[in-house]
Write the structure tokens for this entry.
Amino acid sequence: MKLTPEQKASASAILRSNDESFLHLLRVAGLDPKRVLPGADLRGVVFTEHDDLTGLDLSGCDLRGTDLTRAKGREQALFDDVLTDASTRGLPPRRPPADFDLDQAKSMILTGQAPPRAWWPFITALSFVDEKAFRDVRPLAGLTALQTLDLRGTRVSDVTPLAGLTALQTLNLWGTRVSDVRPLAGLTALQTLFLVGTPVSDVTPLAGLTRLRSLDLTGAPVQDITPLRHLTNLAVNGYNQDAVGERPNPAPGAERSPDAHDDRLSPRQRRHRPPG
């Protein structure tokens, strides 16, 4: 690669510098951090105690493998929509916007509106228990930080909009009208799932959820749970007693919903409920 005279001068200046500060090297190279940092590829960069990030915008940066531990002013820098991985270090906890209101976010969702985008990273748990009129989960589609979602007693029937909520760990569909769990197939962080009293009959789409630990099928018309037999850490509760084939770890003492509603269960289904 042939360097321009300007590039050669920048490279020479960097080589002559004894300062290991990343920001200093940018300036030595004639680059303005305020202009070049947003969206930059900073993979593997190690910031030092001489790097002051106060007021800088690192939004959209690739910070995989980046170490910010020693940098000053991290809390006063912007880190919106950055790309990180397990080796990213020193990223400060994000603070919600001044107008963030979780109750207002819930009210907006109930009326069919998505909360403001700036609020999304701070919505990690939502409960719509017994919101009888709630049936449309499309406003939840962008809430990729959501870890716990409780839809007990709602009229939700289609969970397709939840397919992208990959941080979801606990999902309660107790007594909903959901019959198809295929949209949940990609929720690889899911650990606890309640399908009590739902019309779900096929759990095959859950076979790839290797982190799933607790599944409650009480009152659901599931006849075959063999597709889950390889999930050795999974405790299945309340499956139909006529289920076919090998059963993965049925556990009468498995986790159950604290405020269980049985209004969708028949008397026969209630008799087959394991002790809770």
Notes: The longest helix spans residues 5-16.
